[in-house]
Amino acid sequence: MKKFVQSLINGVAIALIASMVFTAFPATSNAALVQLPPLPYDYAALAPSIDAETMQLHHDKHHATYVTNLNAALEKYPALQKQSVESLLQNLDQIPEDVRKTIQNNGGGHVNHSMFWTIMKPDGGGKPTGTLATAIQSTFGSYEAFQEKFNQAGANQFGSGWVWLVMNPQKQLQIISTANQDNPLMQGLYPVMGNDVWEHAYYLTYRNRRADYLKSWWNVVNWAEIEKRFVSSASY
Ligand code: MN3
After folding, report:
1. Cα-to-centroid distance, 63 and ligand 1 (Å)
2. 141: domain range?
3. 155: which of 98, 202, 210, 228 lies 20 to 30 Å off by Cα?
């Protein structure tokens, strides 16, 4: 028992040190195969904006599959495991050709969804505050204008993809959309926030009404987390 407690304490200590060393945002993995992060709330926590079954399938099946496929590619090239997945996405041209597309799609899928779960929360919504609020105001004119532009870009993304608020190298906020699981890091842009517009993200509740999903999604947005990402984007 004593031994068990000691190993538990050691485990916690290692986890603490690891989190201190590796909190360089937005890395979600380090020097190892990737793990599916647990959903930080219950499947039903985001209802009615996102129903429980969608959350369960989305996290436990879709995200899990990206992790499995990514790891299968990383297992072939242990050297790649020494980099964060984010850094792999930033340097896709340096990845061996036979696994490049797999890492682009599944590494992107992993990084995108790891962010997605954290930028939502039960009883979310409201408006951003602080420096993010100021930046949105000065870039888009108003919070409402920003929201409308974001929704529009999400609705106009043809087929599967994501809509993003990104920080560009000129340190300006920008709204973009990407196809498939492409992450803005692949274009040298920092993903401040993004919404998943794949049908798997909304179809059970909203069917073909993507615009309704995009509107309702703001009710579960976690602005505190997005503001953290915005602050990190300044030093990117
Ligand atoms: Mn998805």
Report:
1. 7
2. 130-233
3. 228
Measured in Å, residue 199 CA sits from the centre of ligand 1 at 8
Q: How many angstroms is it from 155 CA to the middle of ligand 1?
A: 15
CA of 19 to the centre of ligand 1 (A): 26
Q: Closest Cα to residue 45, out of 113, 120, 111, 112?
A: 120
Instruction: State the CATH number of the domain containing residue 227.
Output: 3.55.40.20
Using the mean position of ligand 1's atoms as its centre, give its distance from the Cα of residue 48 in Å.
18
Pairing mode of beta strands 190-196, 173-179: unpaired
- Among candidates 185, 180, 190, 193, which has minimal Cα distance to 220? 193
pTM score of the predicted model? 0.86
HSE of 128, CA atoms in CB hemisphere, 13 A: 23
**Per-run averaged pLDDT (10 residues), the chain, 236 residues:** 47 43 45 90 98 98 98 96 96 98 98 98 97 98 98 98 98 98 98 98 98 98 98 90
Give the Å distance between the CA of 146 and the centre of ligand 1. Answer: 23
Q: Is residue 83 helix, strand or coil?
A: coil
C-alpha 13 to ligand 1 mean position (Å): 33
